[in-house]
Amino acid sequence: MTSEETPITSKMELREELKALLRRAYENEVDVEGGFACRNGAEHPDWDVVVTEVKKNGHPE
């Protein structure tokens, strides 16, 4: 974490950070769909993240 980052302390904050990250990537033409292995060394767990685009249902967020 850099000095400019604020700690994430809830699932809601995590969701908002993920949403912002995915939007930034999409706006910069990064293909965000697929699987991402997140290897974190011995001090943190590893995660496997899968991103799938879903069809909008017509309702606003």
How would you describe this protein?
With 61 residues, this protein is of the alpha+beta class. It has a domain at 32-61. Helices cover 28% and strands 16% of the residues. It is built from 1 helix and 2 strands. The protein has one helix at residues 11-27, and strands spanning 34-38, 47-51. It has a two-stranded antiparallel sheet with strand order 1-2. Strand 1 and strand 2 (47-51) form a beta hairpin. The longest helix is centred in the N-terminal third of the chain and has 17 residues, at 11-27. The mean pLDDT is 91.
Strands of the largest sheet, in order across it? 1-2
Q: Could you tell me the mean pLDDT?
A: 91
According to DSSP, the number of beta strands is 2
- Individual helix count: 1
Show the helix and strand layout.
Elements: H1 11-27, E1 34-38, E2 47-51
Antiparallel strand pairs: 1-2
Which properties best describe this structure?
alpha+beta, two-stranded antiparallel ribbon, 1 helix, 61 residues, globular
Concise synopsis of the structure shown:
The chain has 61 residues and is α+β, with helices and mostly antiparallel strands. It has one helix at residues 11-27, and strands at 34-38, 47-51. A hairpin with an 8-residue loop joins strand 1 and strand 2.
